[in-house]
Amino acid sequence: xxxxxxxxxxxxxxxxxxxxxxxxxxxxxxxxxxxxxxxxxxxxxxxxxxxxxxxxxxxxxxxxxxxxxxxxxxxxxxxxxxxxxxxxxxxxxxxxxxxxxxxxxxxxxxxxxxxxxxxxxxxxxxxxxxxxxxxxxxxxxxxxxxxxxxxxxxxxxxxxxxxxxxxxxxxxxxxxxxxxxxxxxxxxxxxxxxxxxxxxxxxxxxxxxxxxxxxxxxxxxxxxxxxxxxxxxxxxxxxxxxxx
Length: 244
Description:
Blueprint: E1 2-3, E2 20-32, E3 38-50, H1 58-62, H2 66-73, E4 76-78, E5 81-83, E6 88-91, H3 99-109, E7 115-118, E8 120-121, H4 127-139, E9 143-146, E10 151-153, H5 156-161, E11 166-168, E12 173-176, E13 180-181, H6 195-206, H7 211-221, E14 230-232, H8 234-237
Parallel strand pairs: 6-7, 7-9, 8-10, 9-11, 10-12
Antiparallel strand pairs: 1-13, 2-3, 3-4, 4-5, 5-6, 12-14
C-alpha cells in the first residue's frame, strides 16, 4: 500500500464537535482485480449530526484556527468531512481508506453539495483511496476552494486538483513531497513506467493536465523526500492547472 505520512496534524478534531447523534451506514463495493479475482468490501460509516441544543465539549474551547472555526459552523460530520450547509462541505483532517465511503455517504445525505473547502488538510494515510476520492470529487463536478489561512499538504494536494474549478486565497499554502510505501520504498525505487508511478500521472491527466504537464507535476511532488516538504503557492500551482 502506498501512503503519505501526515506532515503536521494541526488540530486534533475528534473532540471538536458538539455532542452528536450517531448514525451508522454500510456501503458495499465489489470489483475484479487484474488476476480475475472478485472482491467485495463493506465499509461502515458513522455519521455525526450536531445537536445544537447540547453544550459544547471542552475540546472545542481549546482548539483554534481555521479548521476549528469551520468545524464549529458545521451541521454534520462524515469522517474528515464537515457539512457547512446544503451546498458547502469542508475537509478538515487527513483522509484514509474509509474516506471514499464517507464522502459518498455525505453526498447521499446532502446531494446539493457543490463546493469542498480544503481548510487544514494534513494529507492521507492511504494514497490509493485518496486518488479514488479525488476522482469522486471530479465525477460529482465539485469545486475546490482553500480559504484564507488554509493549508493543503501532501496527498490533500491531489484533492485540490480534483475540483472542476479551483480557488485559493492569496495566503494559501500547498506542501508536497514524495510518497513512501509500506516497505519503505519511494517512487525512485520503481521503474518510471511501473503501475505505482503511472497511477499518479494518469490521475493528473484525468484532472485536466496534458501528459507532459502531468509528468512534470509528478516530478515536482517527488523533488523532496517523504521526510521533507516543498512549499508551493498559487503562482507555482497555476503553472500546471487553472486557479481562480
